[in-house]
Amino acid sequence: MRNVLFTLIVRPIVFIVLGLNIRNYERLKKQGPLVVIANHNSHLDTLVLMSLFRGNSFKHVRPVAAGDYFMKNAFLKWFSTKVMNIIPIERKMTRDFTGMFQPILDELDQNGIIILYPEGSRGEPEKLSKYKSGIYYLMRERPDVPIQPIFMHGLGKALPKDSFILVPFFVDIFIGETFKCDLNRKAFMDEVTTRLNQLRDEGNFKEW
């Protein structure tokens, strides 16, 4: 059902109604284990990222999402688990990072393709927020897993935070080269910032 819904509904909306200009698609790894990191401005971000994968690769794609938000009512829970197949994570302070991230680690051990956002929650349209160090504490547990940075531009206007009205808006997707975790936290977080900033700068976008 998940693949059918994406084929008949989600991908036509993403590729036809919105229209995607994908840069360096050949860089996208089609097999896991893989962690995809991206900027986060819109409700559509995850659906767009998932739509980049097809066939057998798509079966392994699992976005990480806030369990307290996506499990709060019956419809959202059904859509999140049956269509998007999210890995729900509780947003709460804890020092048990390994326990918190165990469902993600288990999926990576099964060659999963994980989607997550270093910024955490959605930010202001087309503006990068400071990246949170949760990505480091996850990746230090699996330092050999490749990380694929992707920058998206336009979704913050097509369907921004707190909006539920889709505005057709051309979307640019920039896919970067994979890299791996540096066990030095500051060095790793600096690299995450640099990688996503470089992809953003490739577009040479003007301020909204």
TrEMBL record:
Membrane-traversing stretches: none
Protein's name according to its UniProt entry: 1-acyl-sn-glycerol-3-phosphate acyltransferase
A Pfam family assignment: Acyltransferase
GO molecular function: 1-acylglycerol-3-phosphate O-acyltransferase activity
Entry keyword annotation includes Acyltransferase: yes
UniProt domain Phospholipid/glycerol acyltransferase: residue ranges: 34-155
Keyword Transferase found: yes
Key words, A-Z: Acyltransferase, Transferase
Listed CDD domains: LPLAT_AGPAT-like
GO BP annotations listed: phosphatidic acid biosynthetic process
